[in-house]
Queue: 2 jobs
Job 1
Amino acid sequence: MLRRLLMVAVLSLVVPTLVVSPALAEVKPGALFTSGVVLQRECEVPVWGSAAPQEQVEVKFGDTTLKAQADAKGKWIVKLPPQKAGGPHKLIIGAAGSDAKQEIADVYFGEVWIASGQSNMHWTFSHNIKDKEQTLSEANDPLLRQFTVKKGQAKEPAADVAGQWLGASRENLLVDKQDGASAVGYYFGRELRKELNVPVGIINSSVGGTPIELWSPKGGLYNNMIVPMGPLAVRGALWYQGESNVFSKSGMRYVDLQKKMVAAWRESFGKDMAFYFVQIAPFNYNGRPNSKLTADALPEFWQAQTEAAKQVPHSGMVVISDLVENVKDIHPSDKANVGKRLAALALAGDYGRKDVTVSGPTFKEAVADGAALRVRFENVGAGLASRNKEPLSHFQLAGEDRKFHPAEATIEGDSITLRSAKVAKPVAVRFAWDELAMPNLMNKAGWPAGSFRSDDWKLEEEAAVKPAATKEAPAASK
């Protein structure tokens, strides 16, 4: 026994230990590059993934073979040459010299857009959507596809997103119920499909109850649901967010917050990426029990959104005050017209359509004329009009005392003349300066005018009551 133990000890010194090398990491494409993916047409398209560190990777697309070497962290990337709209194509990805390849089928090239924001973008067809049964019954378009990013936050930039590409059908639009396809994203894509007749891919990265800060650098949603998708080739981004920032009293600070976020996104997805957003709807923020907000909170936020549209190049904003049926519901059910208006911005701004209206009347200047004030507008089109053929509503005038009173409005060409018996010499005008305002001023193309003010006077101070929470669930619970 002693001899045997000695022999084992000696052998253990002279015989090398057999080390079994772990299998090389499988070459994997990023989560966006799975069967059914829609890739941006007419530009170089980055395709990336993971592999073992320093692994040689091959990506075959038709007769083209692209090679890349994974870096020290196992990341690799290639760029497909520009392609015209169409398909189906295949991507074949694997380690160079290996027979083990992954085939990604049903690949199409077309138009790719990101749809992001909080609950009004996140709202699915499992929620209260106007005319949703008709929409679902008509949804049958395999070339209108949506990739819904799995929700979550991260302290550091995540390696990848999670989700799947699904074509537009009743079944697919109801997948994952309240965490599935964006209704606004669907309606936007449906309009592009009708007008452009090319495949459309919508990447839905949205979470209810979230402020813009979480979608910006160092924010948890930015790290987990935006950063991993860079440098995806996209045409642009859609943004429907702001309700949470009204509750947090962002006010005019929102201009810089939005500029910061857009700059970061464009750094990831392309500096020429379009950015189109929705001005949030009228809602009784100040009228809620125990609200700490003032009556100016929402109008001031509208002002910030209007200013952001002016300051951010290649951007645009749609007004939806005319689409609201219930100002006590923070989620207007008419998502179809929201999507159509966003699509109009894209058609005019990115696809060369000259025959598309993209705005309602916008404030240009106010000129005092004795007892009257003349307000001139841009984006008048064929003329100004009243949506319901009633007298124009929600105009207010103030004199040097800075007290506003309702005003009578008369359309005169591309301007409106205002008068008030209580204001002898008006110096300032406010329009729709009310969180419940659903004014009837529009242009003859049917696009509504947005809230504005001509003065720069200090607004009402906040009330001294604790604010109520929104009805939306916080990001962590979505």
Job 2
Amino acid sequence: MSEAEVITLPKFLSRLPRFFSGLPKRIRGLHLVASQTADQQAGLGLCLEKAAKGNPNGLAIMYEGRAMNYRDFNAWVNRIADYLAKSGTEKGDVIAINMENRPELLACVAAIAKLGAVSALLNTSQRGAVLEHSIRLVQASR
């Protein structure tokens, strides 16, 4: 373990003011999410909507030479969310995702978030009994 990885009491205490200075924002964010009704967005879905509205041509994703702006990414996410909603996905559902790291994973996670459901990301290297255990553990709705 390197010296940079070791957290000593003086290091911990020196970081407390920075932590507490951001606390009001964290509390406001928690309040916002807790006060949302079933038909209101919060979190990732809301952030993506705001980014698409405020900066539609801004770069949202760049992956292996492929680029997508916020407007197009949000539209893609909305199509996935619409499909999931028509398939019966509802707020509070847990959706298991077993996909490698790529833009499609981000789009699925964002679509699930827009519906108020929860993404349970499964490790793509798991097989057999270990994968079965992970699926049972997350108690996925779909």
